[in-house]
Amino acid sequence: MFLFYSGTTIIKKKSEFFSSMITYKDIYEAAKKERYSEKLQPIPKSFVKDVSKYLKDKKAAASKDEDVFSDVLLKTKKQLENAVTLFQELLRRRRKKILSLVLIASETGISKLDFNNMLLVEKNLFEEFMKCIEISDKKLNELLNSGNDEEIQNNVLVVFLEDVNEFKSSEGEKYGPYSTGQFSNLPKEIAQIFLADKIVESMEK
Asked: Does residue 106 share a domain with residue 34?
């Protein structure tokens, strides 16, 4: 299977496979399609590698300093700058779309087409984000399910054996006043002090 760009297709040798050369127009068109589409656009799996080769070749050409080619060099340098900008824009827009797909997938799932349109590195990014959301959801569920139990376990149900005036905990929270025979669910630290002084009696076995 061959992935043809709009550039010229060349043949290295008769015994070798065809090879496609990416062009500035290919990068421009890919960035344009991504910019004006809400969905993640399909691009060749070798796109990043091909763009890397293109930019490397352009940098080599732009490094020449022969005066006779000054106009050509200026054009090459400008095209190189534009190609880098377009490529960065393309990746940035695709990354934003992938982040949106992560949120959608966490609620309703993702279509096979959207997933197949991702590059390998983008699929890895997508899967890592999904793992992070799963871990986050799991921790939130654990907090929701165990939060009330923790609060109950940290409190002790007691009955007061004598009257106690209003007081503050070490955190500044107010408690009381309490009268003899009154029940209260006190923080374990406070209950232990009152139990030691026989001011209250624990109602828990």
From this structure: yes
For residue 69, what pLDDT band results from cuts at 50, 70 and 90? low
Q: Confirm if 62 and 73 have CB atoms less than 8 A apart.
A: yes
The span from the first CA to the last CA of the chain, in angstroms, equals: 75
Number of domains in the chain: 2
**Do residue 49 and residue 138 come from a single domain?**
yes
Residues in contact with 52: Cβ distance below 8 Å, sequence separation at least 6, in sequence order:
none
- Asked whether residue 173 is domain-assigned, the answer is yes
Q: Decide if 3 is inside a domain.
A: no
User: Is the N-terminal amide bond of 177 cis, ω within 30° of 0?
Assistant: yes
Q: For 149-204, how does the pLDDT look when each residue is reduced to its tens digit (9 = 90+)?
A: 544 457 888 888 999 999 988 888 889 898 887 878 888 889 999 999 999 888 76
Regarding pTM above 0.85, the answer is: no
Asked whether residue 1 is assigned to any structural domain, the reply reads no
- Is residue 2, in this structure, part of any structural domain at all? no
Domain with 180, as residue range(s), is 155-202
* Residue that has been written with the tokens 């043949």 in this structure: 11
Q: How many CA atoms lie within 13 A of 39 on its CB side?
A: 11
Token pair belonging to 96: 């934003």
| Helix spans in 36-159 (H) | 47-62, 70-107, 112-116, 120-153
Per-residue pLDDT tens over the stretch 70-94? 777 888 889 999 999 999 999 999 9
